[in-house]
Amino acid sequence: MVINVQNLVKRYGDLVALDHFNLQINEGEIFGLLGPNGSGKTTAINCILSLLKYDKGTVEIFNKPMSPDAYDIKRNIGIVLQNIAVFNELTVYENINYFCGLYIPQKTKRQQLVKEAIDFVGLNDYQKFLPKKLSGGLLRRLNIACGIAHKPKLIILDEPTVAVDPQSRNNILEGIQNLNKDGATIIYTTHYMEEAEHICSRIMIMDNGKAVATGTKEQLKSMINTGEKITVELYQLDNKNLYEIKQIKDVTQADFSENRLTVHFIKGRHNLINLLGYLQNKDIPFGRVYSEPPTLNDVFLEITGKQLRD
């Protein structure tokens, strides 16, 4: 086991930031850590890394007790923070070389690792650029390269795709999956549900300093009552028909707008058959039909009662 956290408690006066928090992460996982602002994610990570003193509990990393001076453990950890953490006076190459040098003193080995990191994030054409000359997406890539150049076994990525363009986001997500394939265990925090659904092998949802749900995306979806969403293209639908659709078994919500009927169901069988059967019985012509299973966002909303972003 890479991380084993038991009954972690962290208080700020009367505020309980972590309330007997437990976390287990196995080798080779991409573990998603999700939660609304103030849920305790950052506090948990800082306590796990011994950057913050906690009141109660135990933290083990690589089956060893973690402490502020556990340098043998820390040299195998890479951290990529949400805020860009590079030196504006140093070039791309110099930044990566500096951060890698904190872990790798041997110059020859470090040069090879820096080259591999630059190749990995696709910054070959920007090695002599200062950070201020880079776009937001390239800055994110530089930030990642600085955190992973020393080939850590455990990588913590805190919202690495914030405010980047779609192409850069895809490149970053693909890079994270490649890091994982190369053997790194990854903790990934994000406010983008689709990212977690795409790359994470297991996910924890935190709220009020506690883990409220943990599992694969399939397991999390099985915990909620929200079912599929069915969208049907219609030319017209009167209020009486819309009211009757809302009375169909397992329907929780139905809306008609811009020639689209959208119907939400709780868990149930034959939802599509029941809806299309109604339309056919009423001789209501329809076009294309789309059925969507519940998403992680549905899970998050039902479990926490909160939007991930305001």
Describe the structure.
The chain is of the alpha/beta class and 310 residues long. Among the domains are: 1-76 and 190-224 and 298-310, 3-Layer(aba) Sandwich (Rossmann fold), CATH 3.40.50; 225-293, Alpha-Beta Plaits, CATH 3.30.70.100. It has eleven helices and 14 strands. The protein has helices at 41-48, 71-74, 92-101, 107-121, 136-148, 166-181, 193-199, 217-222, 239-246, 271-281, 296-304, and strands spanning 3-12, 15-25, 30-34, 56-61, 64-65, 77-80, 154-158, 185-189, 202-207, 210-215, 226-234, 251-257, 260-266, 286-292. The protein has a six-stranded mixed β-sheet with strand order 6-7-8-3-9-10. The protein has a four-stranded antiparallel β-sheet with strand order 2-1-4-5, with helices on one face. A four-stranded antiparallel β-sheet has the order 12-13-11-14, with helices on both faces. Strand 1 (3-12) and strand 2 (15-25) form a beta hairpin. It is globular. The protein starts with a strand and ends in a 6-residue tail after the last helix.
What key phrases describe this protein's structure?
single chain; 310 residues; alpha/beta; Rossmann fold; Alpha-Beta Plaits; six-stranded mixed β-sheet; four-stranded antiparallel β-sheet; 11 helices; globular
